[in-house]
Design goal:
Strand content: 15-25%
Mean pLDDT: 96
CATH superfamily of the largest domain: Aldolase class I
CATH topology of the largest domain: TIM Barrel
Number of helices: 10
């Protein structure tokens, strides 16, 4: 057995039967915390390392039903009854709750008191062994070439946990993907590389100034790490999100394709990811403002032309 440490980690989800996080049927472990702040992020709960309070109004039965348990539980007075609304079954009005996010300190006492789980904690602490025991329950689904994907947030931001989880899984012969923004020390990629079968690697913008405007970080280390992995024979599956008006300019698309082609045979696939709206409701749950509400997905003709450009450079590319 490979030597590993039962390192602690903080995650926000484990999803079985995942078919978009690498080849085959996979189980994906989502770590919490990311150094990037992409404007289009569809998993805002992944960004902050801290626990966060989420609220799903559709699950709230009404403060009168639970006798204000969540309101009473909040020591800061951050929760109160909202305006009455008609009950879905037509039985009268109900009063759901409203959260004053400015007063909330994240103690999560309201979530503990919520009997219908409308209030919930985003994130929980775990260990390598706990995650290993959970994901190994899905091993029968991996026969078609699937496996485990360690994702985020940015999994490399919890390097000790991610490295030791990869070691623990590698010893079981399971195919391992690491989904990464590439924003981490090169030495960390060098250390974890022997335990990863495929890197799902994001390229968001080629221009460093625009990259910082769109994600909050420079892209120098990201491009450097992609070159490092390619030069050392790692398998890469490049992911290029296409966001109208933000990174869909022809110059950027062409430079991205040229960069992918420059990485040579290490690039097994380039996935073109058209912007979608699926994550917008998650911002409401956390009380965040979503800044791209007026952005619409790119049309099919544009995506097809982009695909042809990548394929024309000899890349194995697909619209995902």
């Amino acid at each position: 057995m490979l030597d590993y440490i039962n390192a602690p980690g903080r995650i926000y989800d484990i999803q079985g039967y995942a078919v978009h996080d690498g080849p085959g049927i996979r189980t994906t472990v989502y770590t919490k915390g990311c150094p990037l702040r992409c404007l289009w992020c569809h998993s805002p709960e992944s960004q902050r390392r801290d626990f966060e309070l989420g609220y799903l109004p559709v699950k709230c039965l009404g403060a009168d039903i639970c006798e204000d348990d969540c309101i009473k539980a909040c020591p800061e007075g951050a929760i109160s009854r909202d305006k009455p609304v008609p009950a879905p079954d037509g039985s009268g009005d109900i009063q759901k709750i409203i959260i004053d996010r400015a007063k909330c300190t994240g103690c999560m006492k309201c979530a503990e008191a919520c009997i219908c789980e409308a209030l919930y904690t985003a994130g929980w602490d775990t260990t390598v062994d706990e995650v290993y025991n959970r994901v190994m329950k899905d091993v029968s689904f991996f026969a078609d070439g699937g496996g485990i994907t360690i994702s985020g947030g940015e999994a490399m931001a919890q390097f000790d946990f991610t490295l030791n989880l990869a070691k623990r899984l590698k010893d079981s012969g399971i195919h391992i993907c690491l989904d990464t923004t590439g924003f981490a020390p090169t030495a960390h990629f060098e250390e974890i590389m022997p335990y990863i079968d495929l890197f799902l690697y994001d390229i968001k913008h080629m221009d460093p100034i625009m990259h910082k405007k769109l994600t909050g970080t420079d892209n120098e280390i990201i491009l450097k790490n992609a070159r490092f992995l390619a030069e050392h024979g790692a398998a890469l599956q490049i992911r290029f999100p296409i966001i109208p008006r933000l990174n869909d300019q022809e110059t950027n698309i062409r430079k991205t394709a040229e960069f992918c082609a420059s990485l040579g045979e290490s690039v097994k696939l380039v996935q073109l990811l058209p912007y979608h709206k699926a994550g917008r409701s998650k911002y409401d749950r956390l009380g965040w403002h979503y800044r791209l509400r007026r952005v619409e997905p790119p049309d099919e003709d544009f995506m097809q032309k982009t695909l042809e450009l990548f394929q024309g450079m000899g890349l194995n590319a697909q619209i995902h």
